Amino acid sequence: MKAAVLHKVRDIRIEELPKPQIVNDDDVLVRVKAVGVCGSDIHFYMHGRIGDFVVEKPLILGHESAGIVEEVGKGVKDLKPGDKVALEPGIPCRRCEFCKSGRYNLCPHVRFFAAPPVNGVFAEYVVHPADFCFKLPENASLEEGAMVEPLSVGLHGAILGGVRPGDWVAVLGSGPIGLMALQASLAMGASRVICVDLYDFRLKLAKELGASETINAKETDPVEAIADLTGGRGVDVVFEAAGVPKTSQQAIEIARPGGTIVHIGLGEQEAVPMNIVKMIFKELRLQGIHRYANIYPRAIKLIASGRVKVKPMITARLPLERVEEALRMPVERPDSTIKVIVEI
Amino acid sequence: MKAAVLHKVRDIRIEELPKPQIVNDDDVLVRVKAVGVCGSDIHFYMHGRIGDFVVEKPLILGHESAGIVEEVGKGVKDLKPGDKVALEPGIPCRRCEFCKSGRYNLCPHVRFFAAPPVNGVFAEYVVHPADFCFKLPENASLEEGAMVEPLSVGLHGAILGGVRPGDWVAVLGSGPIGLMALQASLAMGASRVICVDLYDFRLKLAKELGASETINAKETDPVEAIADLTGGRGVDVVFEAAGVPKTSQQAIEIARPGGTIVHIGLGEQEAVPMNIVKMIFKELRLQGIHRYANIYPRAIKLIASGRVKVKPMITARLPLERVEEALRMPVERPDSTIKVIVEI
Amino acid sequence: MKAAVLHKVRDIRIEELPKPQIVNDDDVLVRVKAVGVCGSDIHFYMHGRIGDFVVEKPLILGHESAGIVEEVGKGVKDLKPGDKVALEPGIPCRRCEFCKSGRYNLCPHVRFFAAPPVNGVFAEYVVHPADFCFKLPENASLEEGAMVEPLSVGLHGAILGGVRPGDWVAVLGSGPIGLMALQASLAMGASRVICVDLYDFRLKLAKELGASETINAKETDPVEAIADLTGGRGVDVVFEAAGVPKTSQQAIEIARPGGTIVHIGLGEQEAVPMNIVKMIFKELRLQGIHRYANIYPRAIKLIASGRVKVKPMITARLPLERVEEALRMPVERPDSTIKVIVEI
Amino acid sequence: MKAAVLHKVRDIRIEELPKPQIVNDDDVLVRVKAVGVCGSDIHFYMHGRIGDFVVEKPLILGHESAGIVEEVGKGVKDLKPGDKVALEPGIPCRRCEFCKSGRYNLCPHVRFFAAPPVNGVFAEYVVHPADFCFKLPENASLEEGAMVEPLSVGLHGAILGGVRPGDWVAVLGSGPIGLMALQASLAMGASRVICVDLYDFRLKLAKELGASETINAKETDPVEAIADLTGGRGVDVVFEAAGVPKTSQQAIEIARPGGTIVHIGLGEQEAVPMNIVKMIFKELRLQGIHRYANIYPRAIKLIASGRVKVKPMITARLPLERVEEALRMPVERPDSTIKVIVEI
Questions:
Q1: How far apart are CA C225 and CA C229, in angstroms?
Q2: Is the pTM of this model over 0.90?
Q3: B75, B89, C1, C225: least surrounded by Cβ within 10 Å?
Q4: Measured between CB atoms, which of B269, B275, B289 is closest to C271?
Q5: In chain C, which residue's Cα lies nearest the Cα of A131?
């Protein structure tokens, strides 16, 4: 099979590799068809590492994927060849305290696509456990299937953030994850979502996807603007989806007393000066978000029922051969790119 | 002022009463404009009592209301004459353990419109505490304001029922409350809501309001039908909004293991044979719903943001003089009536 | 190995069976040492069935067990030969929606000790997955290890019931499960637990274990008595641990408005006339309890730290040869028996 | 009546003031008898301000109090002269969204004892709403009544922190609030509480009150020590009760993946460099704690039932005349002082 293999920083080669085989009875073989480009893929491609995860030998990137089932193991009952599936990229151990209590995203033994040394899915085929392959309904396309992954991050955040019907929400950072947090919040009944970003292009899309107001932080201070918009009260839930220190700090100002701040945006924030005194006086809750667990089925249902629109977020589609171009696009053309899909 | 006074069963007279006066600084005087007819109003009109609540002296019925502020007490800051408001009908004591912990709907000292001996709002004027008068936004009409009350019941049920995004829901009984439970569930992200009723007229409306499937229980057994529709799994949340023993029993069959049953429908069910063994094996949660607390602001936001549509549920509008006709209409014309609004 | 095999109703034979072998790398072989007698064991012994579970071929009963690890599979890291362990009796599929979301007690594919056709542990040896064998600390005995199972039922009930510090609690039925609910409630901070039963013997033990008040329902109406004791308010959480219709009904009277009823007691209650109207007016929550999930580690910690006392509940210890006597004892001597341990 | 009036920094005078009078029917007049010294009292005494709260005119300090009812308003039913009561010090507006939803500690209009310009209770008498005066049971003393206030802070923290039975807990900072967090955690079922402080005196008391292990951070790095004690897993809940940047940072290391950090300790931490990346990878929850709501009744029940022991925390008792000495004692004798009670 063809696969895109990262050999070293900014060096990906399309190679012919052996087609993977079903090993366990609960596995399925999937012909991968659509894979989204994520910021972590870009980071590995450009820097060769993310924190403790270092690319030390050739690695296949890509983890936001969907495809078509080609073969199923003997024990698989719910899938059959020809089924369209979205692939949840992390396989947990199923036995630790986190797996057994439903928070398998915290499993220390998880094997996650494209987290070195585990290969990802910029490749024609992959073998995956059937229970992490979720059947897409007729009316959902394969590229929508690939978008289930980033939606799951936003939806997991909105669920742990406790968005309630009628809530006011602010989203700081309106890239792919921020736009998913916007849509997940709307799907859970938020009556007002204020989106903030530095690019008008993204804010325009946010508006189309349902944002009630947008703020370009290059021109307007979001803390003051949101105080004005809410009569000084603040919003019920803030999503920090920019991954920079400044927005982490702004979130504490923007949340109403007793409100919640959802930290999704992963950047370099290892020492963000935070106003703990204010967090205490306002009795805020801060919730970190790491991937997701038990969210794929919900995310698929939201896409299939039309409550979340992911197609407008896809700004480019490129074939596997142009995967490096796909990986550079969000960085090189930030004012016209949200999500790039690699078609395989 | 004019008011519709119930003197005895099926005997309401339009009378001239003294216009009420603001007593406390936190009160407002409201010119009542739209009042919905509720099943409890009908019951008092036709039977003179509901359980321990007995009409022993002349009583003004009506508790689903909206109007226009005419005068405000000295301490009122958030309202001014001319504001359109929806009136939350129960005034709690503010001091008992239930009030202080946020569940003021359970306050034993609550004074609730049209719960004898407290008068309701089939009248031109009422004095009410400002913090139970919720300003309607420009784009919400007064009759929509009257509909905030039944929406609040359904929304309170959906919140306590814990509807989560992507959930499958069943609504047993698609009258006014059932249709509100449908809409509240959709607003909270339910991806599928199956509505059951005995009248095709109501099911047609359910479909228009977003039901994914409808079942006429006169023709089809809802337990079997929902088992089929869900591949034997059952739904995440069931609303019992019919208030009859049979649906209380069906709910236990229809809920998935670990699911929730929300009991809203109030009828004569003082001795419903319930399958407790099955409730235990499936580890079900049953949640009773009594009115609402802290829901009016959320309900208004859902109406104003277009997430919940209440206008299609209004099937007749009558002036105060025809209030008896309004009270009989849901009983006499069940196949064409959902909600009747009395215009004052 | 020796095992006690149920051939037909009231016919158990001690037989020599092949010693089981480790099959999977994640398994351990355990030398069973202590097994508690549960009501379900008694029911299978006396009636040959419980609901849909029918003893159709010879079956080993017993599921409340502890023993000593004799051998571990190659993949097992956290256990070694010689370790004392408590065995959680149900092995779920690890792949269905219930398993993955942390509620594996609802797994439709679970294999549970002594639920036909799966054998139990009235036997010298059993092979079990390592992650369902929980190491007992030095200061916990093997018979305490066997008691982890019924404690887990009570603790799961108290957690799902949401007992909060300072709460008032009532326990209807003070058998083994009721006494565990009592102790779990106290461990979670209940300031007052009122225990009800028909046997003074049990109530005396309840008092020793921390009940604030006890009521013998043969002499005193518990509904009236608890109304008196609580000034008419009722209690925050009621445990129905008797498994009879009357207590299910009483629970609705005894709970305070907004309170919770935990249904644990499994009996013949397939058609209990329940006052749904009152459940709605009081906005009660009823929670069914089916076994437990993720509770064994917590239960062991509560025993080891001395917060829960299980030894006083063990009223007899008999060798495997006298297992039939052990199974009859709770029925034949209800006024002196709580829990019987079979020593193997 | 006699009262201790702060005129300027370090200048308190015992003065004769008019005895307050009952104004509202729901008020009671209380003869204050015991008042604890809190860090905020000390701060006002020594610095004249805390953040935006500035002492601009003479102020009576003191807010942790209990006394004896001397007179009750006409509407008061649950109290009578002679009753011992603990006084909850904050009177909220009862009408804002926070009050009505049960989080009245966030009420922007709250009037709180000794928060300028509202007077506190270092005085012989105070008039207070009856529903914020909680009757103490026979077996609770007045000085225990004064200790209900700091216990309420710790208990509110343990409840919002979600301590569950069997949990492992760490308390960073073992002063009055930390020791209350310790005891509240134990009352809620924590099986292990590790206390950290800089003073052996406090750690010795922590041990007496139930801490499983103690760490003097002057000698041992608590992050490493707790990693060792928990086999690298970390604890379920961390209380930051020291109010210094370092412990806020340590908490992120000490919590297990998916764990909770409760921020109670109020200091100067307006810009604490926090590792947000780690907070996200571990999916931590941080919960700020501001006073308490609906906790007094629970705290009193925990003291009365013996689950929480507050007497060992009282290290000195001084008469009103020596209030300045009482205010200096925690600062001047940190190695022998936990809580000082002013007897009036």
A1: 6
A2: yes
A3: B75
A4: B275
A5: C95
